[in-house]
Amino acid sequence: MIAKQPAVKRYIVTLGTDERERLNTLIQKGINPARQVLKARILLKADTSETGEAWSDGQIAEALDTSIDTIARTRQRLVEEGLDAALTRKQSPNSARKRIFDGAAEAKLIALACSPPPKGRKRWTLTLLETAVVHLNIVDRASDNTIGRTLKKTLSSLTCRSNGSSRRRPTPPS
Predict the structure, then answer these.
(1) Residue at a domain's end among 56, 87, 118
(2) Burial, 89: exposed, middle or buried (Cβ in 10 Å; 0-12, 13-18, 19+)?
(3) What CA–CA distance (Å, rounded) separates 20 from 24?
(4) What is the number of domains present in the chain?
(5) CB-count exposure of residue 22 (10 Å: 0-12, 13-18, 19+)
(6) Banded pLDDT at 153 (limits 50, 70, 90)
(7) CB 36 within 8 A of CB 70
(8) Are 22 and 62 in a shared domain?
(9) In terms of domains, do 77 and 129 share one?
(10) 174 in a structural domain
(11) Which of 42, 61, 87 is the last residue in one of the domains?
(12) Which of 39, 90, 98, 104 is at 20 to 30 A from 65, Cα to Cα?
């Protein structure tokens, strides 16, 4: 596989001895995510200091079985944002939706799900819980799917207790 070569390297990696030690420790421990280890290896191979290997991007790409673009982005993040930013994955603020149920709202939902069901009902359904959390101003809006996921996550082994008797919590769909 022949990798493309950039004409001029815009971001030169020069690591200090403490940074090299940190990267070597990160690689040797074996408890870090693979993506982080790969970026540490890229930076060590690209290091142009006296103790560095100063490999070209093509050599690094071939040796580590990665793309030139990954190497270029890792170099760029190191130079522009520092070592920690180069090793961690960049999180986009728009990539995930804000959680509907925070800790307090989740606790209220659990208490509601463990309470006696409305009159004329044998048990709480997800649709009833959906209506109740909005009516009680626990959250502004929530779907039955969101409620089901929240209960599944938090109540997988919890038994609700009301009036001294034990009954299982509502079972969300799998």
Answers:
(1) 87
(2) exposed
(3) 6
(4) 2
(5) middle
(6) confident
(7) no
(8) yes
(9) no
(10) no
(11) 87
(12) 90
What is the average pLDDT score of the chain?
84
DSSP 172: -
Percent of the chain with pLDDT over 90: 52
Residue 95 lies in a domain: no
Core vs surface per residue 108-120: b (16+ CB within 10 A) or e:
bbbebbbeeeeee
d(CA 42, CA 86): 10
Please identify which residue in the block is written with the tokens 């089901």.
Answer: 148
> pLDDT tens digits for 100-152?
888 899 889 989 998 999 999 999 999 999 999 999 999 999 898 989 988 88
The domain in which residue 69 lies consists of 17-87
The pTM of the full predicted model, rounded to 2 decimals, is 0.53
- Domain presence at residue 169: no
Tokens linked to 165: 């008797």
Q: Are residue 61 and residue 118 in the same domain, yes or no?
A: no
Whether 83 and 135 map to the same domain: the answer is no
Q: Taking a C-beta distance cutoff of 8 angstroms, is the pair 28, 40 a contact? A: no
Task: List pLDDT tens digits, range 78-106.
Answer: 999 999 999 988 766 666 667 788 889 98
